[in-house]
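# step 3/5: fold
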Amino acid sequence: MNGVVIIDKPSGLTSHDVVNRVRRILGQKAVGHLGTLDPSATGVLPLVVGNFTRLAQFFTHSDKKYEGAIRFGFATDTYDAEGEPISPQVEVTLNIEELRSLAAEFVGMRQQMPPPFSAKKIAGVPAYKLARKQKPVELKAAEVEIRELTILGVSGERATFRAHVSSGTYLRSIAHELGQKLGCGAHLAELRRTAVADFSVENAHSLEELAAAMKQGSVESMFIHPRMLLPQMPSVTANEDILGHIRAGRAVNLPDMSRAPQVKVFCGQRELVAIANRIAGTLFHPSIVFSVHTESLVKNHSRQD
């Protein structure tokens, strides 16, 4: 079974917890995710299954979109609601125009300091493990891009927001820094990821829905159609002779006039056989071969047919 399925991660589970559950549901060991979500966060968690785990390399730097809420009045050691307060709680009266003005200052390329409780590694050890043991956490700022940070509304001490950010951006750090700028402290109260690359929450399914579909024998309906994957790459349908060469790892001529550096090679409409790199003209060499003999079970969701 090869495919990509988008899970709507519930709060309280780590991304690895979700991966383990999907492994049990599908009876498939080869399952991975395309970007960690904090346990308290919900939303889009794309999973790659079977040979499609090899697609993960194409999503390393994918943009992400979020919606959430920031609680002003005190900061926490984890920069979110799971942590311990590290500043006295103060009463705040939020001005939406002031917040929007401050949020606008974050948009663009910037150096961001990750939270001390994060998966960033220090000498090979995740920072959160050191922080839990109250050991020094010396993280370095990383360059990130914030494409959008919009304050949607305010209510009491909370502000809701929408964000579009580059890979590696911490919304917890944004919340923390906004609190510093206002001088009252703040932390991330809620977070929901609405998109990763071209995968959106509209494509997502709950773990319960996936399990039910597996029992009913219709789990393939939960998978993204492979022609919808990596839309920047044109799709090419090859005949059996060409497919035989591709499966053997040989260079072939493909009927593609797009001049794109890479193409997705299909057998029929649904079986993604390989990703091929252009050598020159219409000559391509397979860089990743997913299918050797059998047809993938990956099918399109009914609304994509």
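# step 4/5: annotate
Residues 3-62+198-222 form a domain with the Pseudouridine synthase fold (CATH 3.30.2350.10).
# step 5/5: archive (pending)
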